[in-house]
Amino acid sequence: VMSILLHGDAAFAGQGVVYETFHLSDLPSYTTNGTIHVVVNNQIGFTTDPRMARSSPYPTDVARVVNAPIFHVNADDPEAVMYVCNVAAEWRNTFNKDVVVDLVCYRRRGHNEMDEPMFTQPLMYKQIHKQVPVLKKYADKLIADGTVTLQEFEEEIAKYDRICEEAYTRSKDNKILHIKHWLDSPWPGFFTVDGEPKSMSCPPTGISEELLTHIGNVASSVPVEDFKIHSGLSRILKARSEMTQNRVVDWALAEYMAFGSVLKEGIHVRLSGQDVERGTF
User: Which residue intervals define the domain Dehydrogenase E1 component in the entry (predicted)?
Assistant: First the structure.
């Protein structure tokens, strides 16, 4: 399995979660053994210029924090892109570390239907309008090289257009939205044949007071005999024991009882994140 993350340039530089997950990338319990990050670098974040969005020259500089190799490639050159992607896959396969492909490209139209980029980026968009689209540029090169003929190219385009047109025509006949087809792993029996959810009925999840008392007592006891425990902690355990006896719970004890009841059913619970080891729950 190989994980591939697709980023925009502004998001790669600007979203803290990118930097945070890079720091998780090589931790024993979190690693994916190397992720390939593909940055679609259209040199604009909605309507923001890079010089107004970040302080470093490249959006991908964030990845330097884990010494990930970063390949900057001209996205107008499909063969160079293919070459770089192969190198990236090979790197990941060999060293099991993250790698970044920075596709330096441009956005031909606005951010959405309402956005006219000429208002905010007139100079850039005058240049973009002069750019030959990558498909035409590459086709011209292949035809000039004699790799394909003009007829073969036109047939390929027509074939693709036909696939799109046929799918569009078929889509008009669809009257029912089959929700289950869009689920990664359709839950059996969750939807009816028409794709409608069945009436939701949950199995009873309540547990006996006896079991709650047992979990409360375990949660407020020390598992090892003659173990001298910190006075601050013994106060917490004493308060927890009293709550159990008085049939009262606070947030932490309620959480304990939830985890405890699941564990009693033999279901593994893994906690991860800040302060878990210290038990600050």
Answer: 2-179
